[in-house]
Amino acid sequence: MKKIVTVSTLALLLAGCNPGDQQADDTTKTEQKSDETSKSDEQTKNEDTAKDTNKEETNKTDETTKDDTSEEAKQEDKSSDETTQEDQGSSDEAEKKDDTPATEDKKDESADKPDSSSQDPEQEKPSEPESETPDVDKSAEAKADLSLGTLVVVNKKYSLPIDYKPSDLVVPNVSFSYSGVLEQSYMRAPAAKQMEKMFAAAKKEGVTLNAVSGFRSGARQKVLYNNYVARDGKAAADQYSARPGHSEHQTGLTFDISSPSVGNGLTAALGDTKEGKWIVNNAAKYGFIVRYDRGFQSRTGYTYEPWHIRYVGVDVATQIKNNGQTLEEYMKVGH
After folding, report:
1. Mind listing the pLDDT tens digit for each residue in 183-200?
2. Quick one: which of 275, 255, 307, 286 has its CA closest to 203?
3. Are 295 and 116 in contact (CB under 8 A)?
4. What is the pTM of this model?
C-alpha cells in the first residue's frame, strides 16, 4: 500500500502539480459549490418570500376592493331607499291634495256678471262725456203710463214695475250678432215687423245691420247696471246705463243694433260709419228714432248712443226727426 501511494505522488510531481495545491483546489471548489448552493437556496427563499409578500398584498387589495365595493353598494342602496322615500312622500302629498275637498262656501263670482259677449255686450264707457248737465229731478219720480202704448215714456224720471213684461214679444226675422235665441232676442210684435222691413231695405242698399239686444227684464237690467257701477263708478254709469225699472229695453220697443264694420259693438264709432249714417237718415221711414242722439244729453239724461233705436210709429218718428226733438219734448214730459 505504501508503495502505491508513493507512485501516485511521484506521478503528480512529474505532472507539475503539488499535492497540497490539488487538495486546496478541491477544497476551494467544494466551498464554491457550497456557496453557490447557499446563494441558490437564499435566492429561492427570497423569491418565495417575495411571492408570499405579493400574495399578501394581493389579498389586502382584494379585501380593500371588496370593502370599497361593499361601501358603494351600501351608498347606492341608501340613495335608492331615500329616493323611494321621497317618491313615496310626493305620492302621499299628491294624494292629500287630490283628496282635499273644494271649498263649498266660495261665492259664485259670475253670478252678478253679464254672460258671454253675445249676451248684452258691454257698453263702452264714453271717453269724453258730453258737457251738457242732465236735467234730472230724481225726487220727482213717477210711474210710466203704459196706456200710451208705443208712445210710453220710460226714462230717469218715469219707471216701469220691476216685473213688467209685454205680452206680445216675438223674435224679429233679422240677422243677429250671435247665434241662438236669448231673452234679448225678443221685441214687441208691431216694432219687430217694422224692424224686419228696415233691415231688408238696408241690405238692398248694401248696408249690413245686425240686431244685438232687444227686450231686457228688470232683473237683467239690475245685473248690468250694478256691474257698470262696479266698473266705472255710479256717476259715470248713470250717464249711459238705466237703473232697474228705468230702461227702455223693458218696454220691448227698443233694440240695440250694430254692424260688422265696428265688430258689432255698442260704440259711438258706429255713428261715423256708413251703417250709422244710414240709420240716422232712414230709421224714421220705418217708425224708429235714434233715441239718444248726438248733443242730446241735457235733454235725455244719457250720452250719445247711435246704436239705440226706439219704435214710436212712422208718423211720430218723422215729426221728431224733422223737428230735431227728443221723445220727452214731443210728449211734453220731463226726464
Report:
1. 999 999 999 999 999 999
2. 275
3. no
4. 0.64
